[in-house]
Amino acid sequence: MSEDLHELAGLRVFAIVAEERSFARAAGRLGMSSSAVSHTISTLEKRIGLRLLARTTRSVATTAAGAQLLCAILPALADIAEGVAAIRSSHGKTAGVIRITAVKHAVRRVLWPLLASFKQQFPDIRVEVDADDGLTDLVAQRYDGGLRFSGSVAKDLVAMRVSSELRGAVVATPAYFKRCGVPATPHDLFTHTCITHRKTGRDEAYQWMFMEQARTYAQTMTGTVAFNDADLVIEAALAGLGIAYVFEDAVVAQLASGQLERVLGAYSIRFPGYDFYYSNRRQNSPALVAFIEHLRAAYSPALGARR
Fold first, then answer.
1. For the chain, N or C: smaller number of CB within 10 Å?
2. What are the angstrom distances between the C-alpha of 26 and each of 15, 38, 186, 296?
3. Could you give the domains of the chain?
4. CA dihedral (21, 24, 28, 31) positive or negative
5. Mean pLDDT across 34-55
6. Taking the CA atoms of the chain, what radius of gyration do you get in angstroms?
7. CA dist., res. 179 & res. 118, Å (int)
8. 154 phi and psi, to 5 degrees?
């Protein structure tokens, strides 16, 4: 029995090393030393008789056998973790791990305002947030939940509205407008230097959306500077590098201080708010249920859960 438990512990260490792609990061997450993690993996590989991880000085990746083993054990490890969390919860302590994927703007708008209060109420729940503008697949990557625009995720997930609509804003510094002029219509933007927001991992930028005479349309802008991070787009605008298209609530402070000025407000559109998406399976973990209820309470004026 002790050998079986030892092997189970080794499989958990292997899964975390494979996920982190680093012995050092896995050691930090497990509360172990890097040498202890390495020894555990070596012992597991000897017991199985196969090499599970390919190690270089810069990275760690699963071998073909390791990838096959990882696919086989992840569901079981998740079930074990949920079972342990459920036992703890039944004895008055809600614990476990919640993995969430969200675009960076949603992290700031939705998660930051309530994360401290959630952790204060549930100190034994570990919250792991992947800020990812690349729209990672929630189900395929085994996330417990994700923050995405309303209506942008598969309908077999439960959706709970957690924010109001968002408004687009075209901004630049006062110095830029003084030097280059103020665009009177969206079409005038083609004569200006624009800062574009490139989609992560793709040679494609987000389009700039406008409304005119009740008609919504998109403009594909090009510019001399492009980023795959919305924060860097704002920093570039503050540096006077050109005109940027951002969410209005992301630049409230800069507009109020006069660091940035907004133009073309009459043409701005509203985007759908964010939903929190999660699996519709019958029994979610106690930790995830606690998080969902905390979200619901924090954003009770919003629409609530729906399918």
1. N
2. 9, 10, 49, 33
3. 2-87 (1.10.10.10), 94-164+273-306 (3.40.190.10), 166-271 (3.40.190.290)
4. positive
5. 88
6. 24
7. 48
8. -50, 145
Residues 292-302: pLDDT tens digits? 999 988 886 54
**CB-based contact 287:98 (threshold 8 Å):** yes
| Size of the chain, expressed as the number of residues it contains | 307
Quote the CA–CA distance of 10 and 12 in Å, as a whole number. 5
Q: Are 285 and 142 in contact (CB under 8 A)?
A: no
Q: List the beta bridge partners of residue 60.
A: 55
Tell me what percent of the residues of the chain surpass a pLDDT of 90: 40
DSSP per-residue letters across 165-181: -EEEEEEE-HHHHHHH-
CA dihedral 98, 101, 105, 109 (to 10 degrees): -30
Distances (CA, A) of 160 to 21, 202, 277, 299, 300: 33, 29, 6, 10, 10
Distance CA(35)–CA(31), nearest Å, equals: 12
- Cα-based torsion angle of the residue sequence 175, 180, 186, 190 in order, rounded to the nearest 10 degrees: -130
* Over residues 95-108, mean pLDDT: 89
Residue 111: DSSP 8-state? I
Contacts of 76 (CB under 8 A, 6+ apart): none
Percentages helix, strand, coil for the chain (3-state, rounded to 5) are 45, 25, 30
Tokens read off for 257:
């201080």
Q: Do residues 206 and 199 lie in contact, with contact meaning Cβ atoms separated by under 8 Å?
A: yes
Task: Judge if pTM exceeds 0.85.
Answer: no
Measure the CA–CA gap between 291 and 285, rounded to whole angstroms: 10
**Residue 210 above 80 pLDDT?**
yes
pLDDT at 256 over 90: yes
- CB proximity list for 94: less than 8 A, separation 6 or greater: 85, 88, 122, 124, 125, 286, 287, 290
